Amino acid sequence: MLVVFVRGWPRGGATLKHINHEKINMEIDDKNLLKHKLDYLKLALKISKLRYHGDEPPKGLLHRARELGRLARISEQELKNL
After folding, report:
1. What is the pTM of this model?
2. DSSP label at 57?
3. Measured between alpha carbons, how far is 9 from 13 in angstroms, rounded to an integer?
4. Beta strands in the chain (DSSP E)
5. pLDDT tens digits for range 31-45
6. What are the residue ranges spanned by the domains of the chain?
7. How far apart are CA 22 and CA 16, in angstroms?
8. Beta carbons of 69 and 79 less than 8 angstroms apart
9. What is the pLDDT of residue 19?
10. Which phi and psi angles does 4 have, rounded to 5°?
11. Which of 39, 55, 65, 77 is the Cys-Cys partner for 43 at CB 3.0 to 4.6 Å?
């Protein structure tokens, strides 16, 4: 736990404020997980559109989607079906 001085409001002076680093780290992890999931879903949509139009997606695109899927904690079964 970290203790920092923060300017008081509406009165002047400084007050002690406790910051819980574990909570901050969890929030950052959640944001990263959501970003990875969103990026994965965008690539999965792109792959689906290519296949719908009869084209085979490039291997690099499939590889990148699987990497993002693992970071987003997508099941291996779903990644194999990609």
Report:
1. 0.65
2. P
3. 8
4. 2-7, 14-19
5. 788 899 999 999 999
6. 2-80
7. 19
8. yes
9. 58
10. -130, 160
11. 65
- CB environment 34-62: b (16+ within 10 A), e (fewer): eebbebbeebbeebeeeeeeeeebeeeee
pLDDT in tens, 44-81: 999 999 999 999 999 999 999 999 999 889 999 998 88
The C-alpha atoms of residue 47 and residue 40 are separated, in whole angstroms, by 10
Furthest CA-CA distance within the chain: 68
Q: Six-digit token pair at 13?
A: 């002076």
Q: For residues 33 and 73, is the Cβ–Cβ distance under 8 A?
A: yes
Angstrom distance (rounded) from CA 44 to CA 69: 9
The angle formed by the CA atoms of residues 4, 5 and 10, to the nearest 5 degrees, is 140
The torsion defined by the Cα of 36, 37, 38 and 42, in degrees rounded to 10, comes to 100
Tokens coding 40: 């994965």
